[in-house]
Structure formats: structure tokens, C-alpha cells
Known about the structure:
Layout (H helix, E strand, L loop, with lengths): L11 H25 L7 H29 L5 H32 L11 H6 L7 H12 L6 H20 L3 H10 L9
Helix pairs in contact: 1-2, 3-5, 6-7
Amino acid sequence: MGEKTAVRTREKWVDDVKAIACILVVLGHFFQSMTKANILPDNDLYEWFNTTIYYFHVPLFFICSGYLYQKYSKVNSVGSWYRNVTKKVLALGVPYATFTTATWVLKKVFSSSVNDQIGGLGETLFLHPTAPYWYLYALFFIFLVTPTFNSVKAAAVGLVVALTAKSLILTGGGTAFTQYRQFSQTKYGLCSA
């Protein structure tokens, strides 16, 4: 009874940023669908809007997730890492597997009516996640390899490493980085339906 219990309070600014990013996701997918169905024209205004929001709405989600992960997850030993991975499998893996499987079944059953065909279930779950669940897939693997930092100095070193990796991606510093860059510069990137 004498043990203190940490109480988590919601951070309003994180909720506000996520709400803005959600609105941008909905608008982006709405306009993409309307354009793909030829209801709206594929003009310069659409291209500008689509490109502009896709440059930052998904990174906003990752920033919020990273901030909350850093603040509330303390991974400083193998045991705490294992507990964290178990927690993330439940929090991200179960919804990912459930909704990806449901989407896969629906796309197989109604394959003549979908815009984009889907591969096998194993391939979809483990190699080529389907939209919009790719975010949970990517977030899990980011959490799997991302440490939490105990000091500002360690966080600064982590930031330098992350910026170096991003520079390699942007400049094509390797085969995997080149493939990522080519994919991320496609018309719809990871957000195609």
C-alpha cells in the first residue's frame, strides 16, 4: 500500500497533433479516392495538396508515437526490452494481425471489386503490409530496435544517428536506401489503398 503508483496524464498537445494528422489522412484518402474514381479531376491543385499533406501527416504520427514511447517506456535491460516487446506485440501486433487478416479475406472474397489485388496471407502479414495497417507494422519494428534514452546527451547521439540514416536514405547511400527512396517517391508511397 505504501508503494507509489505512477499516474499517466494525457498530454493535450499530443492529442491535438494526432487529431490534425487524422483529419489530413481522411482528406488525403478522400481526395485520392475521388480522383481515382474520376469524380474529381487530377489537376495541379490536387497534386499540390496531396504531395504537401503526405510530406508531414504520417511523420506527425511517428513523432507523437516516438515522444510517448520515449516518455513512458523505459528499456534499460534485456528483461525490460522483452517486457516492452511483449507489450507491443499485444498493443500493435494483435490489432495488426486481426485487421490485416479481415482485410485480406474481404479482398479475396470481393477480388473483382477492389482497386488493388492482394497477395497471400503470409506475404501480406509479414512482408508487404496492406494499407492502412502498414503503420502498425512499421511502428512495431521501430519500437523493437529503438532504445529509450536516459539523458539528453544520449538522445542527442541518437538524433545524430537518425539524421545520418535519413541522409543516407535521401542521397541513395545503399541498395536498401535507394529502394526505399524510389518507393517513397511514388505517387502514393506507402499510403496507396
